[in-house]
TrEMBL record:
Key word Cytoplasm present: no
Protein's GO biological process: phosphorelay signal transduction system
Protein name (Swiss-Prot/TrEMBL): Two-component system response regulator
Residues bearing PTM 4-aspartylphosphate: D53
Keywords, sorted A to Z: Phosphoprotein
Gene3D superfamilies in UniProt: 3.40.50.2300
Length: 124
């Protein structure tokens, strides 16, 4: 069974890059370009992994992470924040909001999938 991944990302170039890398590695990809759509798609599809950008137009990634992590999705769902907003405390704030891991942008295409898989394996 291929794992499914929901990407919540408003930047088209970042969405393209993440989708490309994940599809190339045989993951099923679901796309949301804002937080509200991301919440809806997460509950409809119950993906294995959710990649969440912190800076989104309608709500920040911390709020999305909190709403998802503590609101009815399977316990083994993995939440990973992915952001270029890398300021001191962002990783800790992500974890406090319910994220299982944190990856900084710009992502390294050569190691991104391995980073994500490592976070996934830590929880599962």
């Amino acid at each position: 069974m291929n794992l499914s991944i929901l990407i919540i990302e408003d930047n088209e170039q970042n969405m393209y890059m993440l989708s490309y890398l994940l599809k190339k590695s045989n993951y099923n990809v679901i796309k949301a370009y804002n937080g509200n759509d991301g919440l809806k798609l997460a509950h409809e599809h119950k993906p294995d992994i959710i990649l969440i950008d912190i800076q989104l137009p309608d709500m920040d990634g911390y709020e999305i992470c909190s709403k998802l992590a503590f609101n009815g999705l399977p316990k083994n769902t993995v939440y990973i924040t992915v952001t270029s907003y890398a300021m001191g405390g962002d990783k800790e704030k992500s974890i406090e909001a319910g994220a299982d891991g944190y990856i900084e942008k710009p992502i390294d295409p050569d190691i991104f999938v391995k980073q994500m898989e490592s976070i996934y394996k830590t929880k599962n």
